Amino acid sequence: MKFAASILVGVVLWNFPVPAGIEPKAWHLFAIFVSTITAIILKPFPMGTVALMGMLATTLTGVLTLEEGLSGFTKPIIWLVVFVFFIARGFVKTNLGTRVAYCFVRLLGKSTLGLGYGVVLTELVIAPFVPSNSARTGGIMLPIINSISEALGSSPKNNTERKLGSFLSQVSFNANLITSAMFLTAMAANPIARELAAKQGIEINWFNWFNAAVVPGVVSLIVIPLVLYIIYPPKIKYFPEAVDLAQSKLKEMGPMSAKEWTMSGIFFIMLVLWIVGEKSEFADIFGATVSAPTAALLGLCLLLCANVIDWRDVLTEHEAWHTLVWLAILVTLSTFLDKFGFIGWFSGSVGGIVKGWPWETAFLTLILAYFYSHYFFASNTAHVCSMYAAFLAVSISVGTPPLLAALVLAFFSSLFSSMTHYGTSAGAVLYAAGYVPLPAWWKNGLIISVINIIIWLGVGGVWWKVLGIW
């Protein structure tokens, strides 16, 4: 019944009159995309099965060739997600993740909310230096969350994820998006937005970006964990014995082993490369830049060569391979929606609606359309590349102060990923860990999206007025 309902949605859209100004191929791909997302929500089959059926539909109908349908599997960002799963296995296998978790618990472990704010603080500290939100989540935060949760008896493996892990997972995900919005250097799509703004004569640098984002960002980092604590509460809120437990466990573990030191060293190399590997200065010294996926691949190979993990660990990391399938296919569908002109048509249609409106009303409409159109995307970078410049130009044309328009669209280019598990690779990593079921993820994401919009336009709007941005 659920599968039939998903197909029905696609069939109805497929046979709907194609809107003026858009190619039939683009509309038909949109119908398949919506049908696939509907099936993912209703879950008649596992997500990987649904994604493969979506790809099959595109090839059987001639909307995409099989080669085009498989093109998402060549995207480096997809493999970054897969690599960090294997790297996280090293944290587990060496017990380094457990040691870090117990240190965390020893400092903040008396309450679940305290642990949540510990996660937030960690994200805030590392975000300016790691320019990949996926690398931060998969390589740093996920091993910590897994280790803390399992140390305190919360794991998807024994159906105790709501005890603690689900809450920490959602806090980590949303903290990742907020900090990505706060720092120009915290996400790969941010410098792209800056370049696109520069082409329209708007200067954005690290400092004016941070100055504009710091107040609404800090408010979001304080408020969102509290909201999650209310709408998606952990079953156990206090751990009075947690600090003593952590202290005794650390004593039992003794000093760090050789493999823990090896894991730490390799991770430090990856962290340095995530921070500086793509900078031009690095290329001047070493002859080439090193992207975040390449740094992760290097780390994985070093872990294998040092026997920290072995090839059997790679083969048995089932969620990594499952995530590879469904995420690559969704990225493919969203990429070709842009290539076939659907996204451009959508942007132009929204721009045509708001012409002649007061700039405040028009800009609010534009940024809401930009924000919630992320349901169509499986990548922040793809969304920015395809829609940011168009929405910025329309916003300026209706009278919005240019710097205000450029910054708000840039901030929302991180925040809009809260809504779905596929909207950014960081979401795919945490969702695949199994702590949060799909309905809860989407419900929480929608609520958080509304609260973030209120904070960033309300508190942020007042702050931007103080700064003279509008």
Break the fold down into its secondary structure elements and pairings.
Blueprint: H1 2-15, H2 24-42, H3 47-60, H4 66-69, H5 76-94, H6 96-108, H7 112-126, H8 133-151, H9 165-182, H10 189-198, H11 206-231, H12 242-253, H13 258-276, H14 280-286, H15 292-305, H16 311-315, H17 318-339, H18 342-354, H19 359-372, H20 380-397, H21 402-415, H22 425-432, H23 438-467
Structure description:
With 470 residues, the chain is mostly helical. Among the domains are: 1-69, no CATH class; 76-187 and 206-318, no CATH class. Helix content is 74%, strand content 0%. Helix 1 (2-15) runs antiparallel to helix 2, helix 2 packs antiparallel against helix 17 (318-339) and helix 9 (165-182) runs antiparallel to helix 21 (402-415). The model has no long low-confidence stretch (mean pLDDT 87).
